[in-house]
Amino acid sequence: MLQIGQESIFDKRNLQNINNIYAINLDGTDKTLLLGDPFANSAKWTPDGKGITFSSLKNNEYGLYIKNLETGEIKLLKNGESDAKDPVWWPPQK
Predict the structure, then answer these.
(1) Which residues contact 67 (CB under 8 A, 6 or more apart)?
(2) Which residue among 27, 41, 43, 49 sits deepest, i.e. has the most Cβ atoms within 10 Å of its Cβ?
(3) Are 84 and 55 in contact (CB under 8 A)?
(4) Is the pLDDT of residue 31 over 80?
(5) Per the domain annotation, does 48 fall within a domain?
(6) Are 50 and 68 within 8 A, CB to CB?
(7) Is 85 among the domain residues?
(8) 73: left (phi over 0), alpha (psi -120 to 50) or beta
(9) What's the number of domains the chain is made of?
(10) 62: containing domain
(11) Where are the alpha helices (DSSP H) in the chain?
(12) What is the dihedral of CA 34, 21, 52, 35, to 10 degrees?
C-alpha cells in the first residue's frame, strides 16, 4: 500500500503518446508506474491509499475510473462528457 503524504502522483506522456501515471517519493526516489493509458489524466489517490481515481476517454466518451493498486482491477465509476473529469474525494483528504 502506498503511504499518502509520503508520495506524490503525477502523469507524463511518453514517446508512444501514452500518458503514464506514476507515484514517486517526495525526495524523488522510487518512481513507480501506476497506469499507462493514452487518455488518462487528473489522477488522485483514493482515501485509503490502495488505489487511484483518474479520468480517461474511452469509446469517444469521458469516464471517471478507479484502479485498485493491489489487484490491478479498473472499474468505471461514472461516464459522461461534462461531469466525469478531474476527480475529487469528499470530504477532502487530510
Answers:
(1) 34, 35, 51, 52, 53, 54, 73, 74
(2) 43
(3) yes
(4) yes
(5) yes
(6) yes
(7) no
(8) beta
(9) 1
(10) 7-79
(11) none
(12) -50
Calculate mean pLDDT across residues 50-64.
85
Res 90 pLDDT > 60: yes
Task: Cell numbers for 23, please give them.
Answer: 507515484
Please indicate, yes or no, if residue 28 is contained in any of the structural domains: yes
Q: Cell numbers 487511484 label which residue?
A: 52
* 66-to-17, 21, 33, 60, 86 alpha-carbon distances in Å: 22, 13, 15, 19, 12
What pLDDT shows up at residue 2?
Answer: 44
CB-based contact 12:29 (threshold 8 Å): no
Residue 30 lies in a domain: yes
* C-alpha cell at position 18: 501514452
